[in-house]
Amino acid sequence: MLATAPLKIVAVAAGLSSPSSTRLLADRLAEAARERLAGDQDRRVEVEVVELRDLAVDIANHLVTGFPPAGLKKALDAVTGADGLIAVSPVFTASYSGLFKSFFDLVENTALTGKPVVIAATGGTPRHSLVLEHAMRPLFTYLRAVVLPTSVYAASEDWGSQGDEYTEGLPSRIRRAGGELASAVTGHTVSGASRTLTLDDGEDAVVPFEQQLAELRIG
Question: Where does residue 89 rank: exposed (0-12), middle (13-18), buried (19+ CB within 10 A)?
Fold first, then answer.
């Protein structure tokens, strides 16, 4: 009998510094998804983080020549072959970074079709949090990915914050986003119900996850 292939979570981090809060957020989201997946099913879970700062020259060369160097091709293959994707960018001039956009410009526009994606961003001030909805969500919608409901923005002041009775702290948002990614990867809704309906399901059956997202966008 062939061994069951592991589930693969890939996080793309577009931070430019080292150490990087963007990489830290990518790591924590990936770990939250891994922990949830490990607890919910028996398949092995692999996590890979792609740091775009290490691929900046390769990305520029590919944009000019049309041919990806080996390291960049490996990263692109990891992203398109992942069961679940986490995409994290720092905020520059009220949008995602140029490096982040350049990398995803190299991804075929059908290669992420149906792939569950958590979007996240880091910045110095909470005022830039709308970059997730105004820039990143439309980008991955164009790439035909399934962008999960919970996006995570981490301002400088959020690190170490546990929230209060009225707001969720960063750790709570990370856990929720990781849980949503794990549920989507294993074929369940965010609440844990199966996405696949049968003929025995009545009118009150659980609505499939993709349909829920479509209705949210329409509304």
Answer: buried
- Cβ atoms of residues 73 and 106 within 8 Å: no
Whole-number Å distance between alpha carbons of 39 and 179: 11
Q: Put residue 196 in one of left, alpha, beta given phi > 0 → left and psi -120 to 50 → alpha.
A: beta
Residues sharing a CB contact under 8 Å with residue 185, sequence separation 6 or more, in sequence order: 7, 9, 33, 37, 83, 84, 116
Tell me how far CA of residue 53 lies from CA of 19, 107, 174, 202, in angstroms.
12, 17, 23, 51
Position 107, amino acid:
V
Neighbours of 192 (CB within 10 A): 12
pLDDT band at 158 (very low <50, low <70, confident <90, very high): confident
CA gap 174, 213 in Å, rounded: 20
Rounded to whole angstroms, the Cα distance separating 23 from 11 reads 9
d(CA 216, CA 219): 5
* Integer angstrom CA distances of residue 207 from 122, 147, 151, 212: 33, 17, 21, 6
pLDDT at 171 exceeding the cut of 70: yes
**pTM score, whole prediction:** 0.82
Give the pLDDT band (50/70/90) at residue 162: low
